[in-house]
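Folding Problem: From Residues to Backbone Shape
Fields: amino acid sequence; protein backbone structure tokens
RECORD BEGINS BELOW THIS LINE
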Amino acid sequence: MKAFFSVFLALGLCIGSVHSAQAGPARTARNVAKNTAMTAKNVAHSVVKGTRRAVHTVVYTVTR
């Protein structure tokens, strides 16, 4: 989970630096922070869904 967050944080910073010439630094920093937070939230939801699916599979297999 921490690795995914780190990768998306780095990606957000890289994308933000490309757009910094088009917008002011404060706006760019705000957009990067917002996009990184949204990405981290989406990754967390995906991890929870995958974990839930795996648990249900194990429970189904054991109780069958």
